[in-house]
Amino acid sequence: MATSAAPRENAVPFEITDPKRVPAQRYYSRAFHELEKEKLWSRVWQVAARLEEIPRVGDFTEYTINDQSLLIVREADGDEGIKAYFNACRHRATALGTGTGTFHGKQIVCPYHGWRWNLDGSNSYVYAERGFTPACLDKDFLRLREAKVGVWGHMVFVNLDTECEPFEDFIGGIAEILEPIGFDRMRVRWWKHVILPGNWKMAQEAFLEAYHVMQAHPSLSMGAADEDYDLDLQGGPFECLPQGHAHSTPAPVSEGGESPVKGMSMADYFIQFNNALYFGTDSYTTEREMFVQQGLLEKDIPDEEFIPAFFEALYEYARGAGIDLPAPATETTGYGHIFPNLTFLPAYGNSIIYRVRPFEDDPEKCVFEVWAVQIPTADAGDPERPELEGPVPVEEWPQIFKEDYRNIIAQQRGIHTKGFDDMVLSERYEAMIVNSHAVIDTYLRRP
Ligand code: FES
Ligand SMILES: [Fe+2]
Known about the structure:
The chain is of the alpha+beta class. The chain folds into two domains: 118 residues, Rieske Iron-sulfur Protein (3-layer Sandwich); 266 residues, Naphthalene 1,2-dioxygenase Alpha Subunit, Chain A, domain 1 (Alpha-Beta Complex), CATH 3.90.380. The chain is built from twelve helices and 19 strands. Strands 2-11-10-5-4-3-6 form a seven-stranded antiparallel sheet. Strands 12-18-17-16-15-14-13 form a seven-stranded antiparallel sheet, with helices on both faces. Strands 7-8-9 form a three-stranded antiparallel sheet, with no helix packed on it. Strand 3 and strand 4 form a beta hairpin. Helix 8 packs antiparallel against helix 9. Bound molecules: FE2/S2 (inorganic) cluster and fe (ii) ion. The site of FE2/S2 (inorganic) cluster (FES) has 8 residues, from loops.
């Protein structure tokens, strides 16, 4: 007797069956969004805070993901002293903190009936406790519920699943690769966000390839022709890891080479590129590098000597200022991506870091955040607790961000149109996107 194949367990709606094609519904389906909430965001390691947000014992900052809220609390000095508590009073669920602040007297106090907790999560006080039965006052029962915590690159990662894989297994491969860049030494210069009318993946994917630079960012592509598109120069090829992380190491600009723009010297290309990034992002290239570059432009340096001279001057400046810059080698630039939602574009001891999350339980809205970070001077002292600016409207961002945001918005409009079924991807140029979708599905398939 013929039997039809039994339906697969944990079938994923709109799953990836061909790595080069991404079903459109993954960017707007309510069912897919719900599955991501349940199987991805509730189980994956994700960045909840920068360490600068909780410098002193008693400091806290709130992290929200979908309908979940966590309080990231500094209980003691050092990485071990960081806790992540589900933000709900053990009495009647009142949220115990909002935004950023400090628990004075090292006590977490519920604003409703005044129950209190020590910073280690143990209960310290129940008002008029004689009115409760002993079981309700059990010490373990009263403890604040905790999520898992990991620290890497001056960032606090959390996992809502207490049965999750160890943080070291999750971050292992990519941490080693990104280590030479020196993220742990970088501190926040500014931190802004925008609410975009686009799925979180749509927004993220605008930053997981450089293939769009030719059309979307004229100030960066400078008229480079189709035949001159060179993935090696743009930041590829990409190495993708099984955890979903990825990275790339472009050809080291410090060694010169040929400009991707016909008729333009590598030195001119390099200078224009720095200018475009400084004015267009104020993060990848900063005042510091512009100062060094300007100093050299005032001397008459031949083209072929300009880039080595820039790096020499930059490192001399850094030594003088006590800035512990990473080596100017291939591994200090390029792309870094930590699954599922963190992307780095580092250069010169700076980086842009992007984090994207769904917004207000809407599959078609996201919070897109940008941290501009930099290795500070030796005498900089402890930075202020960074404050999140915004939401900054799209049109008020520097040029290059604006160009990216506009495309994300246009894409989210297009994704609904009749006859559009799948995104098509280049497995070479868009390898990080391909890998990210595949790993999302491995989470969604788990029971
Ligand atoms: S809800 Fe927190 S003490 Fe009552
Ligand atoms: Fe871009």
